[in-house]
Structures are given as structure tokens and as C-alpha cells.
Specification:
Number of helices: 4
Strand content: 15-25%
Helix content: 10-25%
Number of strands: 7
Structural class: alpha/beta
Distance between the termini: 24 Å
CATH class of one domain: Alpha Beta
Length: 145
Amino acid sequence: MKFPDLNTNFKAIVIGGSAGSFQGIAKILAQVPEDFPLPIIMCLHRLKHVRNGFIEALSIKSIKEVIEPYDKESIKRGKVYLAPANYHLSIELGHYFSLSTEDMVNNSRPSIDITLETAAFTYKTKLIGILLSGANKDGAFGMKK
């Protein structure tokens, strides 16, 4: 897998996927170099009541630490973020996260569409979007944006 040139004009990467995309995400994270400068923001469908295990399993596969952001947390270069279970993850102008428990979108919370759409609005053409798989159509509209 080839990662973007570290000297590009990109500012962030967003990866979306259903629960079945775990192996693909794990393979991507295993190849991200430790000095990779872009934030990687992941929105993955997972069981809403299971708070432990998923992030720990990804962290084992990843060279970089995987963290769940808090509401209003600033997005930092080189960090890997995972949308918390049962929260929509939005990217706000000013480059910080916003979490919400609003209604499900495409039968999902977190919604890949919400994360991708808000990231596209914030980063414009400086964003790389990756959609691995999706239950129903979640992620298709966000990728279009």
C-alpha cells in the first residue's frame, strides 16, 4: 500500500467502514509509518454497547496509538482517531471534533456519512476519503461530498 507523499497539501484522511472492515483497517494501520504527519480519522460501525476491545484490538495492529476523541478535542497532526461507539463524529471548522447522540443516519451511529461530509466541508480538497465497506448505503453520500 502506498501512502500519500508526506510533502503533499493534504491535511487529513478519513476512513469509513462497516464492522466487517476490521481486517482491512488493521492492515492499513499496520503500514502507517510512525512519523506519518496527517491525522487519520476513522468512522467504523460497531456494537453500540461494547465499549472495550475494539480500540484495543486496533491498537495492537497499529504502529501508532489509536484513540477515541472527546467532544471539542482538537485534531492533532499524526494522530489516529476512532469515532466512539454510539456517537456521531463530526469535524468542525477550526479542526476539532464534535460528538453527538442525534438520531441514527442510515441506521448507524456513528454515521460514516456525517463524518465524511463534515470533514469534506472543513478540509475541502485537502482531504483524502477512503470507504472500505458499508452496511446499507452509509458512506456513499459522504464520499460524494
